Structure formats: C-alpha cells, structure tokens
UniProtKB/TrEMBL annotation:
<dbReference type="GO" id="GO:0016787">
    <property type="term" value="F:hydrolase activity"/>
</dbReference>
<keyword id="KW-0735">Signal-anchor</keyword>
<comment type="similarity">
    <text>Belongs to the histidine acid phosphatase family.</text>
</comment>
<keyword id="KW-1133">Transmembrane helix</keyword>
<keyword id="KW-0472">Membrane</keyword>
<dbReference type="Pfam" id="PF00328">
    <property type="entry name" value="His_Phos_2"/>
</dbReference>
<dbReference type="InterPro" id="IPR050645">
    <property type="entry name" value="Histidine_acid_phosphatase"/>
</dbReference>
<comment type="function">
    <text>Responsible for the 2-O-dephosphorylation of xylose in the glycosaminoglycan-protein linkage region of proteoglycans thereby regulating the amount of mature glycosaminoglycan (GAG) chains. Sulfated glycosaminoglycans (GAGs), including heparan sulfate and chondroitin sulfate, are synthesized on the so-called common GAG-protein linkage region (GlcUAbeta1-3Galbeta1-3Galbeta1-4Xylbeta1-O-Ser) of core proteins, which is formed by the stepwise addition of monosaccharide residues by the respective specific glycosyltransferases.</text>
</comment>
<keyword id="KW-0812">Transmembrane</keyword>
<keyword id="KW-0325">Glycoprotein</keyword>
<keyword id="KW-0378">Hydrolase</keyword>
<dbReference type="InterPro" id="IPR029033">
    <property type="entry name" value="His_PPase_superfam"/>
</dbReference>
<keyword id="KW-0333">Golgi apparatus</keyword>
<dbReference type="GO" id="GO:0000139">
    <property type="term" value="C:Golgi membrane"/>
</dbReference>
<protein>
    <recommendedName>
        <fullName>2-phosphoxylose phosphatase 1</fullName>
    </recommendedName>
</protein>
<comment type="subunit">
    <text>Interacts with B3GAT3; the interaction increases the 2-phosphoxylose phosphatase activity of PXYLP1 during completion of linkage region formation in a B3GAT3-mediated manner.</text>
</comment>
<dbReference type="InterPro" id="IPR000560">
    <property type="entry name" value="His_Pase_clade-2"/>
</dbReference>
C-alpha cells in the first residue's frame, strides 16, 4: 500500500511539472534564443529551410521543398490498402523521373557544381545504392528497344551533364521501388517468385534520366532481377500516345494555353521587375534571361542547398526565387480556372489511359500478362493525366512523383472488379471525375472498373463541350 501511495504521489508531481513547463512555454516565460535575422552564423550560405508542417497559406518556399522531394525517412502510403475480401490483380505505375541537373543555365554564371557519380557513403544514402551500381554494370548486354540501348544505365559524371539524373534522383526511385515491393510483392504477392518477362510491361522515353529512374525503381521493386527478363520499350512522345499522337485540336488547345501563360506573365509587374534585376546582375538583356528559364537552374541550387550565383554586379537571391516561384503557383491556379489546359489534357492523356484500361480488362479475363506496368516519364506526362482525371487540386508533379492505378477483384463476386487511384501515396480515387459521387450512392469501398472504362471511352470528352464522343472525332472537330 505504501509503495502504491508513493507511486501515485510521484505520478501527480510529474503531471504538475509537465503542466507548469508547458504553461511557461505557452506564455513565452522561458526564453528562446533566436539568431539575428532567424539564421545562425554557420548557415548563412545555406538556402534550405526546414518546414515541419504545411503553412496555412501558399508559401513558395514550402512548395519548392515539396517539389524537390528530398529523400528522408520512409514515407507512409495508402497503396495496397483494401478490405480483406479483395484480391490485387494488377498495378500500373506512372512516374516522373527523379531529381535531375537543370536543362538550362542562367547566362554568364557558373554552373552549379553537382556530382552525378553514385557514392554509397554520400547523402542522400540508400542501403541498396552500391548493389544497384554493381547490378547496372552487369546489364550492358540487356535487351532494350532502340535507341535506349545506347543510353547509360546509371549517372556517372563528376560534374553533371545537362538534364542528367543525380544521386538524389536515383535514391528517390530506389525508395519508391522498395515501398512498392513491400506492399505489392511481400504483402499481396502480385508476382510469383518465378515471375516471367511477360508479366512486366516497361516503357520509357528516350532520355537517360527516365531510363535510369525506371531502372532504379525496378531494382528497388525486384532486387537483383534477371536481366534476361527485362525489356524496356521506347516511347518517342512525352505524352505516351504511341500510334495515336496526331491530334490537331489538342495542339490548338496547347497554343491557346501558351498564350494564356504569356498574357499572365505580362500582367505581373513584380515578375518583370525581378527579371530586370536579375538580367542586370548577369549583364544580359531581360528577354534573354527570361528565355533561359532561370527557375530551372534556381531550383537545382535550391534543392541541392547550393548558394544562388553571384557576379560582380551582385547576387541572385532568395527574394528573386520567391517571386518567380509565386508566379508559377499563380499560373497553375489560373490554368485550372481557364480550362484550356483541361482540353489539352483530355486529348493528351486519352491514349495512355486507353492503353491502361485495355490492360486492366485483359487482366479481368484471367490473363496473367503485364500484371505490373511501369511508365517512366516526365512532368509533362503526369500533369495532363492528373488533369484529365479531374484531379485539379493535385500538386504539380514533383521529382520522382508516382501515380498508381490498382485493379482489384472481389473474392466473393469474382466477376466484379474495382480500381483505386493513388498519387504520391494518397488515395485520390473519390476525387476523380469518374468516381466523385460513387461513395455517396454506394457502400462499396472502391470504384467499379466500369466507371473508369466508361469515362475513358466516352465521358471524358464531355469536358470539351463538343459533340464528339470518341478520341478521333474530338481531335478533328472543326468548330474549335
């Protein structure tokens, strides 16, 4: 009894101390040392903030950090979540390549010094990085569709080449692959241990960064895979439209969308002032600086925590970066409102969505081919697909973004199949145009496959406002 009373007394005292401590902090009675200008003397040259929670209003620095997608702890995700009476049938993965070196440089400035060799003990680190390099070195005789067979299988330049995948980019997709392995292979047994080549469908554009990103994800998903079972197909178009790329109306939507972007830029006096200031710093005409797309290079500095460039006329700084990034966010907001990009997206995304539902329908018939499909692509691939699906609030595809279509079978009713759509691990199925209202009318936890099929075959063209109810007619309607 005495021991119990002492224990209760100690517990009450601990609770009282905790309450007093929290109260003092809440009322700012405990002093907190704050460096001048909110920055320590050791980190003045560093430009990487450390946000913990999402700000209540759109913050350009926070948005840029999300875009960088710096590899850290393993993320939580909703892939593979379903009631126990559902069986996973097939998975279709669309990825944006990982972190890359910029495609453009700021005129008359030194290129950011980023090392594109893969070093196992350098951050960002992944336990499979060294094994990945070793495995890639054995794949020179692998079978790739031309011209992929002429591309390097992993980045390997001490100073990155333009557009080259970085170590960060490789680690991002090794993490993606390992996450999908834990869910789809270990938990759901999507592929048998003796999986065959025809159970995978792999496709990539002809850029080294997309091929290497696809291989990194694949290695995380299927460590030490048999090279004889791997065949990457080449896709010439960033829209993955294969033999259905000719679409005059899609191009007209794109031209109108680009005109909208141009007019919005002209209206932004703060943006023009910023471009003018930066042009003076690097001593080039403002028009030349704008054409060099400085945000691409600035994002590389930002994501890799490298100081922005300086000249004898001054330095490009964080305020310049914030103005340009803020304009990008405003542009995305207006893009959703004006709907021109939606028209482009519907016609741009239809071919690849049509391919995907074709694979799903074959899987529902019991066919075991192409159970796992991987498209290694670009932001200009994923963004139209997101828009076409009606996911207007989805953020612009970050480095190593992933969009996943899951096909499920009801074990109790084997003829019934459902789909889930996930974006960066978040279940967005009931935010899509084809399944927004389904959960209001049905108790079923997933969206019927026929909803997606009907949407791709017919309903998605309603957004264009014309009379066309199929891809060919929508692409060639004259009244546009």
């Amino acid at each position: 009894m005495l021991f119990r009373n002492r224990f209760l007394l100690l517990l009450a005292l601990a609770a009282l101390l905790a309450f007093v401590s929290l109260s003092l902090q809440f009322f700012h009675l405990i002093p907190v040392s704050t460096p001048k200008n909110g920055m320590s003397s050791k980190s003045r040259k560093r430009i990487m903030p450390d946000p913990v929670t999402e700000p209540p209003v759109t913050d350009p620095v926070y948005e840029a950090l999300l875009y960088c997608n710096i590899p850290s702890v393993a993320e939580r995700s909703m892939e593979g979540h379903a009631p126990h009476h559902f069986k996973l049938v097939s998975v279709h993965v669309f990825i944006r390549h990982g972190d890359r070196y910029p495609l453009y440089v700021i005129p008359k400035t030194k290129r950011p010094e980023i090392d594109c060799t893969l070093v196992a003990n350098r951050k960002p680190y992944h336990p499979k990085l060294e094994a990945f390099v070793s495995h890639m070195s054995k794949g020179s005789g692998a079978s790739f569709e031309s011209p992929l067979n002429s591309l390097p299988l992993y980045p390997n330049h001490p100073l990155c080449e333009m557009g080259e995948l970085t170590q960060t980019g490789v680690v991002q997709h090794l993490q993606n692959g390992q996450l999908l392995r834990d869910i789809y292979l270990k938990k759901h047994k999507l592929l048998p241990n003796d999986w065959s080549a025809d159970q995978l469908y792999l496709e990539t554009t002809g850029k080294s960064r997309t091929l290497q990103s696809g291989l990194a994800l694949l290695y995380g998903f299927l460590p030490d895979f048999d090279w004889k079972k791997i065949y990457f197909r080449h896709q010439p178009s960033a829209l993955f439209c294969s033999g259905s790329c000719y679409c005059p109306v899609r191009n007209q939507y794109l031209e109108k969308e680009q005109r909208r972007q141009y007019l919005l830029r002209l209206k932004n006096s703060q943006l023009e002032k910023t471009y003018g200031e930066m042009a003076k710093i690097v001593d080039v005409p403002t028009k030349q600086l704008r054409a060099a797309n400085p945000i691409d290079s600035m994002l590389c500095h930002f994501c890799h925590n490298v100081s922005f460039p300086c000249t004898r006329n001054g330095c490009v700084d964080m305020e310049h970066f914030k103005v340009i990034k803020t304009h990008q966010i405003e542009d995305e907001r207006e893009r959703r409102e004006k709907k021109l990009y939606l028209g482009y997206s519907v016609l741009g995304a239809h071919p690849i969505l049509n391919q995907t539902i074709g694979r799903m329908q074959r899987a529902t018939e019991g066919r075991k081919e192409e159970l796992f499909a991987l498209y290694s692509a670009h932001d200009v691939t994923l963004s139209p697909v997101l828009s076409a699906l009606g996911l207007s609030e989805a953020r612009f595809p970050r480095f190593a973004a992933r969009l996943i279509f899951e096909l499920w079978q009801d074990r109790g009713k084997p003829s019934e199949h459902s789909v889930r759509i996930l974006y960066n691990g978040v279940d967005v199925t009931f935010h899509t145009s084809f399944c927004q209202d389904h959960h209001k009318r049905s108790p079923k936890p997933m969206c019927p496959l026929e909803n997606l099929v009907r949407f791709v075959k017919r309903d998605m063209f309603v957004a264009l406002g014309g009379s066309g109810t199929n891809y060919y007619d929508a692409c060639h309607r004259e009244e546009f």
